[in-house]
Predict the 3D structure of the following.
Amino acid sequence: MENTVLITILAAAVTAGTPILYAALGEIICERSGVLNLGVEGMMLVGAVCGYMVAVRSASPWAGFLVALLAAGALAAIFAFLTITLRANQVVTGLALTIFGTGVSGFLGKPYIGIPLPLSFKKAPIPVLSDIPLLGPVFFSQDVLVYLSYILVPLLGYYLYRTRWGLNLRAIGENPAAADALGVNVFALRYTYVIIGGMLAGAGGAYLSLAYAPSWLENMTAGRGWIAVALVIFAFWDPFRAVLGAYLFGGVDALTYTLQASTNIQVPVFFLKMMPYVLTVIVLIVVTRHTLAKRVGAPAALSIPYDREER
Amino acid sequence: MKMPAEDTTAAPLISWEKRLQPSPVIAVLVPVLSVFLALGLGAVFLAFTGFNPLEVYQNMLHGAVGSRYGFSETIVKAIPLMLAGLGVSVAFRMLLWNIGAEGQFYMGTFGASWVALSFPELPFYIMLPAMFIAGCLMGGLWACLPAIPRALWGVNEVITTLMLNYVAILWVDYLVYGPWKDPQGFNFPLTVSFSKAATLPTLLGTRVHLGLVFALMAALLLSIVLWRTRWGYEIRVTGENASAASYAGMNIKRNIILVMFLSGALAGLAGMSEVAGITHRLQHGISPGYGYTAIIVAWLAKLHPAGIILVSFLFGGLIVGGYSVQTSGVPAATVSMLQSAILFFVLGGEILTRYRLRIGRKGGK
């Protein structure tokens, strides 16, 4: 009996962690290239709403998912233009992107509140794997977007650490002037990775509206984009560690939800809802002190616009 | 959109050329033009969603300044933006990205309400100063929570200040849905009304309250502190060059905490004047995002106190105008979209104050 409760919570942790994971992976790529995009929350919301609108109209969650990637990518392209070409302050531009994304998604989504989704991403257990005890129900009885994230993480890790392209990506984030001198097109690559990062944030948003809680609600991300940004620091800019963090936060989400539903616990729901945010703050403090001691840190050129004349 | 691959042997056809001195004319021109460009972009959006943009804007303008009532409401909405915007600006000046004004605002409403609800018998000359202090103190202390780890270990304050916004809002929700709920309030999430002594005086039968004086005084004091005191000098130097400030023997850690306290206290004061001046009780959703709008206001005003007062009127007008067109079906989110679009154009245009766009190759022909 207790076992099934545990499995339910663990499985829910993976589900709840997936949107944060997608967004965090996107932000890792973006920050590794030397660009700090704090607009994750806004891009997730735009991804969620655009995905939902298209999925409702076309009755195809996949079409919605693709449009979510494109819409969030377009938003990231605006950010890239402002910060890379026009060298605007990355922190404030990211905030602007979040406020803009919140506004645009509220504007576009208004007619879709309460409209049901004809077809969402449903749980699709993988035949043999889902029969493995514990691991099966937790990891292999999920929906297809969760499986996609399982493939994405090692792929990204391989790309980042084992390919020449990944080397260039890390180089433009650590020392863009040196990379430039070696013939790497810093501007073009930063554009590319900011946009890819945005698309992944959009995927995270679409996961919320098309799979996790198939519906559209204003501000439905509820700070998950910011938690994803915190997670990047927690993960030391490493995709594999991001998985760990995402499922940890997903676990808190799931636990909060379970505690809310159970009747014999008398903690007011408001305090339960505070948990993910308080946890983020505490984890960030602990991890930052740790990085200070171990001297692992952000990409050296993070949030510094690249200017050829000032190298 | 990709940059054209640059050829290193020949100068590119279009390039940025650094100005010897930032252009003051363009520094003023950019925000003004940005407002109009954003309205243009908003018009495209409105037109696409089936509204007549000219009509919408005309109604917004009429709603915001077309009547005595509308104009006074514009001021009412500008007051919290001024106070929170001043708070945000002082932190931003030191490159402390305090985006927790929203939460600090909520904690200010909490502090002031606690005084008003716990000691309803106090006479106004004790009540109002006590609420003032409690509001500032709660907002300031709330900002210290992220400030201390930032000062000691460099913990990213963008994330911590933002996370604490959610916590502060949930805390106030807990109170107004739980222990502080008005038993005669038909189950609405609000407290009982404050006593008469706990309400700020208003101007000539409008809702414009004493908070306006607080805001104007705060702007004046902040200008004096920034440009006439040693501490203000330290804030400005630290923002421009932290390592130089450190070599000059300034105590940066202490200043981080003090500046964040001041920043939070101003946002808390905004919260205090909102409960004491407008709602006269604590209630769910007391701020429609003033703390976030304040960030846009502060940046648009180039962090300048007088500019913040001015821009706050504009944004107060946008909020009131937005309310007045909601009845005709224009989504509430239009206003926040317009506000952030203005910020986008300002951010994009700022490069023009430092650089000029050069078309054609260097050195003639």
